[in-house]
Amino acid sequence: MLAGTAVFFAKAMTRGAFANPTRSFVLGDPAGGAVVYGCVLELLGADEIALGAAGPVRILVVYDEVPDLTAPIPIWSGRVVGEVRGARIVDGPV
Question: Looking at the predicted structure, is the pLDDT value of residue 56 above 70?
Answer without folding.
Answer: yes
